[in-house]
């Protein structure tokens, strides 16, 4: 998908703002997001599935700053949440709670009550025990709520094992055999209307086949439920659409839709989608400065002021993030995010942070232009599961977040201070 991070005269810009300017004024490390990218990615998914009049629920957990949630609230987006904290964020951002869907294997009683009070669209149910509990609470509150049962169609999304969620052996949802029993037991409750089916099979899924396979199995299940007299109104196909970590890696929204829409046409099902990464991934980058260069054996290390506490995906999932200097000499002008780049004169670096862990790296054996102390590096496709997964490990204050809109930018989360590190600790 297109984004709005482009080199102008060999200098990287986010929309019309130079990243050197942001680094100078806000310092580093910093996350920088593009308003236009968020909006255009959302709109592309909405357009691609328009025939089915879908509810797009932006998945909050990948990138959850309330200023970004506000952009989605202003576009009348729905929200996919996984905790009471995310519901609070959506409320703060002015999101419409009747467009919220809520998944999580461990919803607490308090979270359930808050979500019922807020009038969310669907509880996405992860287990029989949870459904029983929601029925108990809704009955006690005398409130009617809607629920969708999360089923595992048992397909292999061919993604990292830590982000595979739709196989049988998973803590999420229930397998199809058990799902039928759940409907028989709870499918006609007065307060909890079990009228939806939810799937979320993994992430990122860079091909359409796993969706087709999962949908075919799920639609057959819905047919059989309907034949038994259960009223199924909605299908929520979850998230998992890819992002371009390298150029052209992820199918376009239109490609996913071309495979999915025909399966759902004339099925009389309201379609819900929960895209996260495909919207936010390419909408953010992480900028960091080179502190030191160092040789170790055959390796050259570029030690930077960003670290695994800022961006943990490489350490956690061996994830690839394209990295390139913010300012380059003309011979290193880059056409597209490739792995590996094929440009003469590049050298191999391990790009590592200051944290006391061997796993603290953002790239290994990565071809980059020759680097020097103080060079600024851009770590691309960092908008999803970047800042949202950051921590203060090694007592490193969290990075700042900046949102660019056209030719201006706003700090939407100030850089944390040392005082922030100890504010919640008692003496
Ligand atoms: C994380 C998550 C999503 C979003 O996944 P992406 O890969 O970011 O699109 C959607 N639905 C559920 C239930 C999730 O847990």
Concise account of the structure shown:
By secondary structure, the chain is α/β, with parallel strands linked by helices. The protein has 12 helices and 21 strands. It folds into 2 domains: 5-33 and 281-422, Lyase, Ornithine Decarboxylase, Chain A, domain 1 (Beta Barrel), CATH 2.40.37.10; 35-280, TIM Barrel, CATH 3.20.20.10.
Task: Annotate the secondary structure layout.
Elements lengths: L4 E4 L2 E4 L2 E2 H8 L3 E5 H14 L6 E5 L6 H9 L3 E4 L2 H9 L7 E4 L5 H10 L3 E4 L2 H14 L3 E8 L21 E2 H11 L5 E7 L10 H19 L6 E3 L16 H12 L5 E4 L3 H4 L3 E13 L2 E6 L8 H5 L5 E3 L21 E6 L8 E8 L7 E4 L20 E6 L2 E6 L4 H5 L5
Parallel strand pairs: 4-20, 5-6, 5-13, 6-7, 7-8, 8-9, 9-10, 9-11, 11-12, 12-13, 15-17
Antiparallel strand pairs: 1-2, 2-3, 4-14, 14-15, 14-19, 16-19, 17-18, 20-21
Helix pairs in contact: 2-9, 5-6, 8-9
Bound molecules: pyridoxal-5'-phosphate.
The site of pyridoxal-5'-phosphate has 19 residues, from helix 10.
